[in-house]
């Protein structure tokens, strides 16, 4: 649940307007939690790229991974600070797949047809990660195991669980929540909750 006591100023300055600090990590998603089968799982990049990728679970596990500490903000008004993510930096994926010069957006595809969208310059940030773990343990299925995108500078619906593919395009394509009235940009400090 949410803390009711006033946070110290240093912490308060890290919580965007309209958000409340939580110690728990609430579980929110659309649809069923998928079963993970390492024998059939794959991650892909496609669209406007020089080198489309298709990695199975074993190959994905060979990519360099890092730990990254970030704050995480959900449109439902909770914020969790100092989450320690483990995963593949987006720079590793971009460097291997090499988006074409005309690529301006990334369509993020997940299990069950879920999609969301971001400009390529938002995705191409040093705190964006393809996460396999959090706070010292692998992700749990309800938090996106085996792979989720983490985009700390946007509300959490842009950090899609059960990530399967990144599609690079020359035009924006609103995803599941964006088509249902959520803000296309989703920047927490500007309270871009709804369109």
Descriptive key words:
Sulfite Oxidase, Chain A, domain 2; about 200 residues; five-stranded mixed β-sheet; mainly beta; six-stranded mixed β-sheet; about 10% helix; 4 helices
What do you see in this structure?
The protein is mostly beta strands. It has a single domain, classed as Sulfite Oxidase, Chain A, domain 2 (Alpha-Beta Complex), CATH 3.90.420. It is 11% helix and 31% strand. The strands form 2 sheets. Strands 1, 4, 5, 8, 9 and 10 form a 6-stranded mixed sheet that branches. The mean pLDDT is 94.
Topology readout:
Layout: H1 9-12, E1 20-21, E2 42-47, E3 53-56, H2 57-61, E4 66-73, E5 78-89, H3 90-97, E6 105-110, E7 115-119, H4 120-123, E8 129-134, E9 137-138, E10 148-150, E11 163-169
Parallel strand pairs: 1-5, 2-11
Antiparallel strand pairs: 2-3, 4-5, 5-8, 6-7, 6-11, 8-9, 8-10
Mean pLDDT level: 94
The count of strands amounts to: 11
- Stretches where pLDDT is under 50 for at least 5 consecutive residues are none
Give the SSE order as H and E letters: HEEEHEEHEEHEEEE
**What share of residues is helical?**
10-25%
Name given to the CATH architecture: Alpha-Beta Complex
User: Number of helical segments?
Assistant: 4
The domain tally reads 1
Please give the alpha-carbon distance between the first and last residues. 27 Å
Determine Rg (CA atoms, Å): 16 Å
